[in-house]
Design a protein that fits this description.
Blueprint lengths: L1 E7 L9 E5 L2 E6 L3 E6 L4 E5 L7 E5 L3 E6 L1 H20 L2 H24 L3 E6 L1
Parallel strand pairs: 1-7
Antiparallel strand pairs: 1-4, 2-3, 2-5, 5-6, 7-8
Helix pairs in contact: 1-2
Keywords: Membrane, Transmembrane, Transmembrane helix
């Protein structure tokens, strides 16, 4: 019994490979524009892209799964990066000094949010 997995993301994934887990056990890595057929142990299994099993999808023999980019992750990542660049280097000095106490709260919250949002989505192809 096996499932086919296709990895189609855009270029800004920094060349990273998506880790593939079946029932929370690491199986392989899948690079961008790569296809693999993976054996599943049972009739049904849970496929995920990280050890927390989020996002996850239930798969069965013969399914074809597409791994693609999660837009909310990249929107949040881009906004956080732009905010850090602006507040760190481009903002007027008076504004930076005024907002300095809030940086201690803003930066960790942004980092936590970016790391909690999955960067991949999983969907079944017909």
């Amino acid at each position: 019994m096996s499932v086919t997995i296709k990895h189609k993301t855009f270029a800004l994934t920094f060349g990273g490979a998506a880790p593939i887990y079946i029932n929370k056990k690491h199986q392989t890595y899948l690079y961008n524009h790569d296809n693999k057929s993976i054996e599943i142990p049972d009739e049904k299994a849970i496929l995920s892209c990280n050890f927390l099993a989020y996002p996850k999808i239930e798969v069965k023999d013969g399914d074809t799964i597409l791994i693609h980019t999660n837009p909310p992750y990249w929107i949040g990542f881009s906004l956080a990066l732009l905010l850090i660049i602006y507040l760190g280097w481009l903002a007027p000095r008076d504004l930076t000094v005024l907002l300095q106490p809030y940086f201690v709260i803003i930066y960790p919250v942004l980092l936590i949010l970016i790391n909690l949002i999955p960067c991949y989505r999983l969907s079944k192809l017909p």
